[in-house]
Specification:
The chain is an alpha/beta fold. The protein contains 11 helices and 12 strands. It has a 7-stranded parallel beta sheet with strand order 8-7-6-9-10-11-12, with helices on both faces. It has a 5-stranded parallel beta sheet with strand order 2-1-3-4-5. α5 crosses α7.
Length: 319
């Protein structure tokens, strides 16, 4: 293997079932004048990371980090960075960026798809087709409903943008409601305004990060406050919702339905009761899995390579 120092090293772990070699290829396309290497094995990772100023990947451990003598930027391929040794990266003066924003269009479409499924009761139609039943059922309309979106980051904003043509009222929930947002109104995470928003909600979309504030945000008290014909869609993290409370609400007709791309626990065990509820749709944390993932991620990283060279502020910097 050549001893020349690479400009960018892509670590070997893939995500969403798509080979990480495709990510390296997208970066090469955007950085034709740079030496972008894909470290395919642990040995290649250990060797290449010693000299690279930029490393891109899903994760990095402290042992690997200790070998990175020239590292200036670790470009994390996930939006969340809690799994990284952030203190160690900061101590070594390594900037860390995340993938915030890459999931806006894909997860936004996933949310709207689930809203339409429950509004039009398509899941009931699929069930009757499987049973070869030509038996009518009455659907709902998304128009004139109230959609509350918890979290107004890239995903939440993408959901709101895609709802513009459906004639719905939107409520946004964010840490700093005084900043406003793209929704018809904005409230904070607690207090009478949040409770009032829940009481007026037909569709509750969770698109927030998992923090001390949002862990267990939706429990029995909140599900008693939402109307019994409301629907919950969770593309945030499983622990934002109290699973026992959700089961209580779905079984007891305190909630019309739920669409879960994330669960608590995750993966959802085979014998978990959520699998068998007709009013619960479960997808295996795959709402962000589209062919455009690595392409959008490469756009961010390539731009940050340029900014690093120019001494400019990095996009999506977390450390």
């Amino acid at each position: 293997m050549t001893q020349d120092a690479p400009d960018v090293v892509v670590l070997r772990k893939s995500t969403h079932g798509t080979p990480v070699s495709e990510y390296a290829a997208e970066l090469r396309e955007r950085l034709p004048d740079r030496d972008v290497r894909h470290a395919r094995t642990p040995s290649e990772e250990r060797e290449l990371i010693e000299r690279a100023p930029v490393v891109a990947g899903m994760e990095i451990d402290e042992e690997t980090l200790a070998r990175a003598e020239n590292l200036e930027l670790f470009a994390c391929a996930y939006a969340g960075t809690g799994h990284l040794p952030l203190d160690a990266l900061e101590d070594r003066g390594v900037a860390v960026t995340n993938a915030s924003g890459v999931h806006g269009p894909n997860i936004g479409e996933h949310v709207v798809g689930n809203l339409l499924v429950f509004a039009r009761r398509l899941h009931e139609g699929w069930r009757r087709q499987q049973n070869r039943e030509w038996r009518h059922f009455r659907a709902h309309e998304l128009q004139d409903s109230t959609v509350t979106v918890v979290g107004l980051g890239a995903i939440g904003q993408s959901v709101v943008e895609r709802l513009e043509g459906f004639g719905v009222e939107t409520i946004g929930v964010r840490y700093t409601p005084e900043k406003g947002g793209p929704t018809d109104e904005v409230v904070g995470f607690d207090g009478p305004e949040f409770e009032d928003a829940l009481a007026r909600t037909d569709y509750l979309v969770l698109a927030c990060p998992l923090t001390e504030t949002t862990r267990g945000l939706i429990g029995e008290a909140e599900l008693k406050t939402t109307p019994p014909d409301a629907v919950l869609v969770n593309v945030a993290r499983g622990p934002v919702v109290d699973t026992d409370a959700l089961l209580w609400a779905l079984r007891g007709h305190h909630l019309r339905g739920a669409a879960l791309d994330v669960t608590d626990p995750e993966p959802l065990p085979e014998d978990h009761p959520l699998w068998n509820l007709e009013n619960c749709l479960v997808t295996p944390h795959c709402s962000g899995h589209t062919p455009e993932y690595y392409s959008r991620l490469a756009d961010i990283v390539a731009e940050n390579v340029r900014r690093l060279d120019e001494g400019e502020e990095l996009e999506n910097r977390v450390v």
